[in-house]
Write a structure and sequence with these properties.
Layout (H helix, E strand, L loop, with lengths): L18 E8 L3 H18 L4 E5 L2 E7 H9 L4 H9 L5
Antiparallel strand pairs: 1-3, 2-3
Helix pairs in contact: 1-3
Length: about 90
């Protein structure tokens, strides 16, 4: 049996690459998940920042590492706030 390792406990991962934000977004359907991912692509292109994503049929996990966090903060980007707004249920 293989055991998955958490990136935070991997001693070979440099500190700047370890996630400082792991945010999960849950959706009711695959279509809602896809809509969010499509909107997130637009935000990423605009901000020129592409976070690590894990996703399934009805969820998306966005991970931002310390290096990315510093880059976004340095540009005054409000990536996480805008990302959360994209996932809001009343957002079209």
């Amino acid at each position: 049996m293989t055991q998955a390792r958490d990136a935070d406990t991997d001693i070979d991962t440099p500190a700047a690459r370890k996630p400082v934000l792991n945010q999960r977004f849950d959706f009711g359907t695959y279509i809602e998940t896809k809509r969010f991912l499509d909107k997130l692509i637009g935000l990423s292109r605009r901000e020129n920042y592409y976070p690590n994503l894990s996703f399934g049929k009805t969820y998306v996990i966005v991970s931002i590492d310390a290096e990315g966090w510093a880059a976004l903060a340095g540009r005054g980007a409000e990536f996480t706030r805008e990302m959360e707004a994209l996932a809001a249920p009343n957002k079209v």
